[in-house]
Design a protein that fits this description.
two-stranded antiparallel ribbon, 8 strands, 6-stranded parallel beta sheet, alpha/beta, 13% strand
Amino acid sequence: MIPVQKKYKAFLFDVDGTLIDTISLIHEAFRYTLAHFGYGNATRDEIFGQVGQPLYASMAFFFPHASPHELKTIMDEHMRYQLTVYKQYLRVYPHAHELLGALKNASIPRGIVTSRRRESLDIYLGETGLAGFFDVVVTPECTERHKPDPQPALLALSKMGINPSDALMIGDSSFDIDCGDAAGTDTCFVQWSYSTLEDLNCKPTFTIDYFSELISLI
């Protein structure tokens, strides 16, 4: 629900669980990787408690005694497997194309702030028809610190030349909402992913159930 009508000068989007439904894909890929490297079974809550940050941090949680070289091996196998099955799972959330098209037609800058590395991000954006909608893309390779730290959002806004108070950060997890809040943007929590409002560390500016609700802000 959007209680206040405000015309934002820029929109920042998370990708996984926000623009693209990768929930089942992520769960399947983690299930495979954890079993392959001997972790055993992890619950869905354990897995998604680590999703939203860079993959290295997630794998370091599950394999705390692994060396950097071993973690790289784990991540490489994880992504190898994910890229063999992703076409079975990917779908764009309803009205995402419509919203992004309306923002583009209105010449309002659009940015991605994601914890997904650039290689798979480009593949998934191309597969879902979302490539070409964004002016700025910030991935973990771009910054030293990552969500929930504000650095990724601030970098995106700096590249756009937009003041944080004039921007909206949209995401589906605490990592996203905390990042936007710390950067000084308004925040929008989407209620169609795996997180709930109770999972958040801070209160978002507003929540939505459908992307179509944001068209009124253009």
